[in-house]
Structures are given as structure tokens and as C-alpha cells.
Specification:
With about 325 residues, the chain is an alpha/beta fold. The chain folds into two domains: about 10-95, no CATH class; about 125-310, Vaccinia Virus protein VP39 (Rossmann fold). About 30% of the residues lie in helices and about 25% in strands. It has eight helices and 15 strands. It has helices at about 10-25, 60-70, 90-95, 130-145, 160-170, 185-190, 230-240, 275-290; strands at about 30-35, 45-50, 55, 70-75, 80, 85-90, 150-155, 175-180, 195-200, 215-220, 240-255, 255-260, 260-265, 295-300, 305-310. The strands form four sheets. It has a seven-stranded mixed β-sheet, with helices on both faces. Strands 1, 4, 5 and 6 form a four-stranded antiparallel β-sheet that branches. Strand 14 and strand 15 (about 305-310) form a beta hairpin. It starts with 10 loop residues before the first helix and ends in a 9-residue tail after the last strand.
């Protein structure tokens, strides 16, 4: 097939072209557009003249977003003479060829519930530290927590401990207790952070562990797990395990991993676009509950929505 060159066509025309390729069963297709670098400083939709002919400028972000929304992988663009060749692959056939189920494990080898996110799982291939949003947003949330010099930290659902690298940069002298129900994931965490204490337990059993109180309780992508009563766990954290001036950072997943790609937004079956209803409901509950317990609450993030609750400023401090 001759690859089209899109010059002044609308984005709606380009979307229609891409959807027609997918409907026809194409696994890979390509087209050429103006090199985004030639329109630096212009907004998407403005015209840029190249070789005496007007072209619609679109930043590279537009093509990344298009790929994500249509369930495609955008391959590395190749440029020539002011145009770039954009190649897209459909993710789903590649997933099937790799033999992976939608849940992320090989067909016929479903892991035990406690090892669904363990060392041998598809989840173990993911490094959250390679998502700039996660690393930067978590560091910002830790800055808001205003931790003391030697804070005591509880990480509920620590898995292999990716987030601990960020926590340590923010506060190198922490005393940490990490809790997770995956023995294999905890083995990795212990090897990475031998100075910390790690306990194999379910989040729902928090009240039975006798852990005491903490200056920071952090739980990322755990409270929404099947079988966990997130409301009850949050009450346990606040009422039994949070120091009077302690902080809480709760992370809610707002993305999915598929065939090497990170796709924005909570998803429902048979929905092409993100459906954020349940996410918003949980965030609203956490925010209200934490505010009721004298905490100032911030909601930040993209692929991981972070609900950060810090002790409200003491009005007596600085008063004359």
C-alpha cells in the first residue's frame, strides 16, 4: 500500500484512516506528516509552510496520544526532508503471539493468589521508576509530608520496593517496615534493602501485626486489590498506625500495562476510553475521611493518582 502524506487534512481524517486500517485487519501501518520540530512554538492545528506548501503542525505529543487512545504502539519515527514517517502497531495480536492472557500471565499457568504480583509474574517486568511522572510526583508528595529527620515509615503493599528508592532520596535515615503477601517479591525487596524490616502478611491483617505508629504510611496500588476492604484498612492506618503529626500517601492505579506499553486511565471491559468513575469515588472518600481527621489533603499524579494527607498546620506555631 502507498503510504499517504497528510498535509492539511484534519486530525479527524487521520483518525478515520487509522481506524479503517484496524478494521481491515492491519497489524502495522504508516503515514507521513510534517516534522514536529519545524513547528516549534506553534500550537497543534497551526499552519507551517514547508517547500512552498502549507502543512498542519502537530506536536509529537499528538501522535503519542493518538497511539495510546487507539491501542497502538508508536514506533520510533524516521525523518527525511522535513517529513517524518510514523509507524503504528496494533498491540493485541502481539500479545496473543506472546501467549499472555489479559491478566498478564501465561495461559495455563495461573499463579497462586499471593504470587500474582510476585517475582515470576508479568508485573515483575515493570519498573515504576522508569515512569517520570511516578518518580517526580512521588518525590513531590514526600516533600509535602514534612517528615522528621529519622522518620518511621510503613509501606503497605511494598512488593519489590521500587518506591523505596524515591523515599530514600527524600529521607535517607528512615526506619522502614514493608508489608506484602508475596514471598517472592519480598525476597527481592530484602536483597535490595537489607537494612529494612519486611513482613509477609496481607493488608487486611494489619491490625494483628502490632506494628505501632509511623510518621509516614505509604500504600501504592494496593488498597484497590481484590479481597481488600480499602475503607477498613484506611481506618486502621489512621486510627492505629499514624503518629499525631504523621502523613499518608495513597496511590491509586490510573493506567494499565499492555505489551510493553503504559496506557493512561482506569479501564472497563469493552470501553476504549478511560472510565474514571470508580477512581473518582475512591479518591473522594479518602480525601473526605482524611480531612475529617485533621489532615490537609492533596490529589496529584497521572498514571498513579496520589492522595497525600499531611498534618494541618499548627495555628499556634508562629503566633505572637
Amino acid at each position: 500500500m502507498i503510504e499517504p502524506v497528510f498535509r492539511r487534512e484534519s486530525l479527524l481524517d487521520i483518525i478515520a484512516f487509522a481506524e479503517a486500517q484496524l478494521a481491515a485487519g492491519a497489524i502495522c501501518f504508516a503515514f507521513r506528516v510534517l516534522d514536529p520540530d519545524l513547528g516549534r512554538g506553534r500550537y497543534a492545528g497551526e499552519l507551517v509552510t514547508h517547500d512552498g506548501e502549507p502543512h498542519v503542525h502537530r506536536p509529537f505529543r499528538v501522535w503519542v496520544d493518538l497511539a495510546e487512545r487507539l491501542g497502538l504502539r508508536l514506533l520510533t519515527p524516521r525523518g527525511d526532508a522535513g517529513l517524518v514517517r510514523l509507524r503504528f502497531e496494533w498491540l493485541e495480536p502481539l500479545e496473543r503471539r506472546q501467549g499472555a492472557s489479559p491478566e498478564g500471565h501465561a495461559r495455563g499457568s495461573a499463579p497462586a493468589v499471593t504470587e500474582r504480583y510476585g517475582r515470576g509474574s508479568a508485573y515483575a517486568r515493570i519498573s515504576k521508576l522508569e515512569d517520570p511522572g511516578f518518580a517526580i510526583d512521588l518525590a513531590d508528595a514526600l516533600g509535602r509530608a514534612r517528615l522528621p529527620p529519622r522518620p518511621r515509615v510503613l509501606d503497605l503493599g511494598v512488593n519489590t520496593g521500587d518506591e523505596l528508592a524515591v523515599v530514600l532520596r527524600a529521607s535517607p535515615a528512615i526506619e522502614l517496615v514493608g508489608v506484602d503477601h508475596s514471598a517472592s517479591a519480598l525476597a527481592v525487596a530484602r536483597a535490595r534493602f537489607p537494612a529494612f524490616q519486611f513482613l509477609e502478611a496481607d493488608a487486611g491483617a494489619l491490625a494483628t501485626l502490632g506494628l505501632g505508629t509511623f510518621d509516614l504510611v505509604i500504600s501504592l496500588n494496593t488498597l484497590q486489590s481484590p479481597g481488600i476492604d480499602d475503607r477498613q484498612v484506611l481506618r486502621q492506618i489512621v486510627q492505629r498506625h499514624l503518629a499525631p503529626r504523621g502523613a499518608v500517601i495513597l496511590g491509586l492505579p490510573n493506567a494499565r500495562y499492555r505489551d510493553g506499553e503504559l496506557e493512561y486511565g482506569a479501564r472497563m471491559k469493552n470501553f476504549r476510553q478511560p472510565e474514571l468513575g470508580l477512581l473518582v469515588k475512591d479518591v473522594a472518600f479518602y480525601r473526605k475521611y482524611l480531612q475529617q481527621h485533621a489532615r490537609q489533603v492533596f490529589v496529584t499524579g497521572k498514571h498513579y493518582v496520589l492522595v497525600t494527607a499531611v498534618a494541618a498546620p499548627d495555628p499556634s506555631i508562629g503566633a505572637s
